[in-house]
Amino acid sequence: MAMTYYSLSYSLQWLPFLIPTLILSCCVSAAQFNVPRLGPLSRGILRNPEPAAVSESFYKDLKTFFYAQTLDHFNYRPESYKTFRQRYVMNFKHWGGAKAGAPIFAYLGAEAPLDGDLVNIGFVNDNAARFNALLIYIEHRYYGKSIPFGSTKVALKNASTLGYFNSAQAIADYAAVLMHVKKRLHAQNSPVIVIGGSYGGMLASWFRLKYPHIALGALASSAPILYFDEIAPEIGYYSIVTKDFREASESCYRTIRRSWSEIDRIASKPNGLSILSKRFKTCAHLESSFELKDYLDSIYAEAAQYNEPPTYPVTVVCKGINGASKRTDTLGRIFHGLVAIAGKRSCYDTKEFNYPTETYLGWRWQKCSEMVLPIGHATNDTMFQPEPFNLNRFIKECNSLYSVSPRPHWVTTYYGGRTLLSLSTQGMVRPEDDIYSIYQVFEKSKDKFSKELKTVVCRISLLGYTSVTEERSTVVGHAEKDGGGDHQRFLTPDVMKVVLEEFMPQLGNKEAFEKGAGSAGSADEMNRGYFADMSEFKQHGGKIAMANKIIIPAMAAMKFPALEVNYSDGRSLKLPISSHGNEAGTSKLDIPKASLLCLSFRASSQAMIDSWSKPFFDAFSDSKNVQLYEVSFVDSWFLSLNPIKRLLLRIMKKSKPDGKSVLQRQIVYSFGDHYYFRKELKILNLLTGYRNLVLFPHFNRG
Q1: What would the mean pLDDT of 499-527 be, rounded to a whole number?
Q2: Residue ranges per domain, the chain?
Q3: d(CA 491, CA 493)
Q4: Pairwise CA distance, residues 685 & 678, whole Å
């Protein structure tokens, strides 16, 4: 994967913050381990050179603009109306245009300047060509060139100027920019999909919740939205770091686990810190054993957080540790691991992760205001020494820095915690080795998936988010062996198809959908769209066709097309039942003389299905010659993938056998593209339900 090189040297604009920050660091950082930051790109020890594959034409396609952004969106004091220049960058190369209603993919900047994301977040650019999308990248306030108050020095001066630096103001910025762009381009009919990774993924999720009239969907990668307020266990982050290392190598894991006590043992000796300084070739004399442990802690966490091809940093560290000679002691092996990941240097800077870079200073304020991330390693269940997150100590540290106390409960108050599930349907993909997977919404109530998707917040791992190459074009869910460990494969650009398939038909975006994600019959679907279905539905009071009052004669009856369905327990069945017996796992089924098949394509038709199936059930409950099936159709390509399909079936509504009745209401599901099935039955409107009385030998006669 290509990444931008981020130098550890800092520009002159940061020098005013250097001395006070280092003074505070010596007093504050020693209190507890450095809390890992978010962000889709590594900006620490895992540095890669500038990507050579980026052509000059790519940069020529990028157009930079500045928007006069309001300082304070939520107050009406005179100072609230001040403005600052907010940077956003657009790429029109693949856009199908406003007249075609082609989509807009909006990448939401996170806690860093936008420059690195333009080059390295290849996932967005890869999908723009597939869907004729306009790309817009919006920089987060207080980062890069989007600095209020005219300069960084003034903006970061104190809590008064920093008070406008929060997530709510940031997503309001994004809303203002997107509305401005749509108006300027006359693109009111172009759907917007907001995209972000890590903290940016959190912003994308929250944006969809707060501004549903602007964003049709959100794609949130590694978005730890359950990170807050003790919703998830504080050791979750380091548990997954430990899992990654243990899966890479058991001996590596054990060596790291032993090393902490060994560092403390040597540090307790006379001149122990001098010994450790020499053994680890530190650039400055160690002031405490904690300084070295915090440095190594950050290296292991970053290696796991950005454990992706082609290098797999976790494997690199473990190969260094395991590759030392047999006579090498524990700390010698740890040093070999450090050299393997950081390269051979004249010395190793233990303050490398704590220098006052732009991201460091900005994120430090965000952590001390609303982004209170309770990460700790509180037990012996990880490869790290126990060090619980101490909220009271954290509040004191932030008070010493800014004279402002953090608000640890505000994020869940303002955006919601687990209640996010009740506010919006969210489709998730959750690779187990993603470092933030424990803090993401991935559980679903059984009713959620049966509803028509209003939001797709697709959580993918940061792995595969930055760029997509041919060798990485495999769907998450299959494991591959590499370097002694199991690594999840990566999401293809097809994951974006989930979002577009769900929403484009509803907007009647014919050109964009046909060219980007069209499947068989997409032209017919686009000619109708959601609004055509709704108009027809209202016009006829929910009845889009007259019901037959008599049984259709056999000569005129339409043959019911074969349909493969699944029960919630995974068993498969082909409808209608034939004389050959076609249920998996059985030799032969009793052939029904009549079957009522109730078809539902959207949750909105469920009441209609019930109005047919219940009277039929009551009338024929004691009959052995009839069968009743309620079929729900799942058209999404993504949800039809076997791993997702199996998970979905487990939480779907199940048939409830009634021991008193011979006839049973059998609830089944059909996955995949049903265009030709619907075409044979002349089904166009998907908002209503359909009932079909099938008489042997499976002719649809009512």
Answers
A1: 43
A2: 558-700
A3: 7
A4: 10
